[in-house]
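Exercise: predict the structure of this protein bound to pantoate.
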Amino acid sequence: MQIIRDIAMLRRAVTALKQGGKSVALVPTMGALHDGHLSLVRMAKRVADHVVVSIFVNPTQFGPNEDFSAYPRDEARDAALLAQEGVGLLWAPDVAIMYPAGHSTHIEVAELGADYCGAARPGHFDGVATVVSKLFNQVHPDVAIFGEKDWQQLAIIRRMARDLDFALDILGAPIARDVDGLALSSRNAYLSSDQRAAAVAFPKALQAAAKAIAGGADVDDALARAKADIVAGGFDSVDYVALADAGSLERLDVFRAPARLLAAARIGKTRLIDNYPVD
Ligand code: PAF
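Solution:
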């Protein structure tokens, strides 16, 4: 597997991969890879001839009091996992390549970025949209794959790609979960063993609420019950539990399909997100 850190070399390598009309899939990541990421890589291998994975811990999507410096980084381990999966190219730029001195352009997907995680993490989705648009321009993939765990992020990236006429397909990959139902996340590594045991309350409460709403329960009651169950299960606070239109992310007081139950909650210093379809 080639590890490339320079844009000119990346362009040459991608041009070589595309020779003979071959397709390229991009899997953007921030590293600290787990089975969820590897499931994106496997999907990428199914839909394209070559897979490029990027690893870049993007400073512009972290707020001033967030975990940018503590975010887990182990490129050697990640590279070994990707090589085992048969990935051909790892794009691993450093911050000075991604954001050269004087970098002053950013992308805001206004309508979809303001609520939910956008409200709790001001500027986060501008950082995501900006770096993802740069990755698209750097790699020029035919298709890019993102996890459905970050449902709002996926909706924002789809809208950005449409609004800015990026010529690629965006695919969402189903959420990978641990055996007890907790969605896989690089941030699960922050949990103590007690917190990890308690964290199962989060998917359990959301799954129950999604089922209740689909079965006709009052939406406000189901959301209130889910919040109470998450806190009773050992979480310190709930940022939001909301029913949203699956595409526009508009908040729904009354269920109509296709909808998604979106949530974020904090346990100790760790903020977890998750979502379930309601249908
Ligand atoms: O989902 C992530 O890991 C990041 O937000 C992404 C898409 C790689 C952009 O930095």
